[in-house]
Amino acid sequence: MQQITEEEKPPGLTPLFRARNIERALKMNRVFFKFEGASITGTQKDRISSLHVRRAIELGYDTIAVATCGNYGASVSYFASAYRINSVVATPSFYTNARSDEIYGNGAKIIQKNMKYEDLVEYMKDKSRDENWYDCSPGSVNSIIDLLGYESIANEIVQQLGHAPAYVAAPVGNGTTLAGIYSGFMKLYLKGITSSVPRFIAASTSLGNPVVYSWKHGFRKIQELEPSVIVETETNEPLVSFRAMDGQKALNAIYDSRGVAIGVNDPEMIKFSKMIENQQSIEVLPASASALSAAYKNLSNRNYGGEVVVVLTGRGH
Ligand SMILES: Cc1ncc(COP(=O)(O)O)c(C=O)c1O
Fold it and tell me: pLDDT (tens digit, 9 = 90+) per residue, 271-296?
């Protein structure tokens, strides 16, 4: 297992705070927000892209490449520019990619292909091998770093809260973020630093995600969906997929923690992101607000002990 050294530690230390207005609005107890939108480029992706860029340099690459729906590309190109290596960011041409100006501004070469995201990941795998680029797309040969990077979210939650919460709710696309947070909590538990592991509430789009589908239908093995059944929208872009690269790990985390996976539709994501803005004065991506929507669906009217930490993965602008 690769170890992250002190020097390699990912950026982080995002705020954790009690969302008392949301508690009142939703009649829920002890809701905390872990606001990843406060990171440098505004999403949790900074935790892994910084590690990938440094690893790429260490291994002697001059170019880092990624297939992305936008947020990861903004993050990878930012750190590539900061560490002065080239970046190549590939997105499906039909994606809105609200962050393309930023990616371009970071000096990245942008590739747009008329392919679904999952096929683009495969395309970039081959292209990176041919061009001798370091590939940091989900599921790449370098993806061991991803889980280690996201474990830092669990470490911070425990440092900030003083113990493990009863529940953690997080949005799921490929499942990498949730799997990494779970792995972090497991390590803390096994080291005796915490006395329990939270139950995981996985939130994703109701318009197509293998983790939600597999959990709902009781599959222990992640099921790939028919590409034609998923419906991509501007709102669900970070979450929708027919193949989740770390879906099996996320599914295991949900079962092992006695958690749930919940589908959230676009109007619900938008409603909850507006509620977060109105009640707590922070702007979050609707896809990130899926985590609060799922926590509400799962926990409202229930007398749960302890806290629920909602990981808000990205800021609105
Ligand atoms: C803001 C945001 N939240 C959540 C996710 C889903 O994360 P994962 O693919 O690790 O499940 C993404 C993925 O792109 C994202 O950009």
Answer: 999 999 999 999 999 999 999 999 99
Q: Is the CB of 210 under 6 A from ligand 1?
A: no
Tell me which of 313, 315, 317 to substitute to probe ligand 1's pocket, judged by most ligand atoms within 8 Å of the beta carbon. 313
Q: How far apart are CA 19 and CA 308, in angstroms?
A: 10
Q: The tokens of 311 are what?
A: 């990981």
Q: What pTM value is reported for the model?
A: 0.95
Residues 6+ apart with CB under 8 A from 239: 171, 172, 173, 204, 205, 209, 287, 290
Task: Using the mean position of ligand 1's atoms as its centre, give its distance from the Cα of residue 299 in Å.
Answer: 23
> Rounded to an integer, what distance in angstroms lies between the CA atom of residue 237 and that of residue 209?
11
Spatial separation of the C-alpha atoms in residues 308 and 317, rounded to whole Å: 25
**290 C-beta closer than 6 A to ligand 1:** no
Q: Could you identify the atom of ligand 1 that is nearest to the CA of residue 36?
A: 1
> The tokens 């990981």 sit on which residue?
311
Give yes or no for residue 73 CB within 6 A of ligand 1: no
- Shared domain check, 212 and 66: no
Q: Which domain holds residue 179?
A: 16-44+145-312
The tokens of 5 are what?
Answer: 């050294």
Residue 185 covered by a domain: yes
Check whether residue 130 and residue 218 sit in a common domain: no
What's the half-sphere exposure (Cβ side, CA atoms, 13 Å) at 79? 28
Per-residue model confidence as pLDDT tens digits over 194-246: 999 999 999 999 999 999 999 999 999 999 999 999 999 999 999 999 999 99
Q: Say how far residue 7 (Cα) sits from the centre of its chain.
A: 23
> Is any atom of ligand 1 closer than 6 Å to the C-beta of 205?
no
39, 71, 222: residue to mutate for ligand 1 pocket, most atoms within 8 A of CB: 71
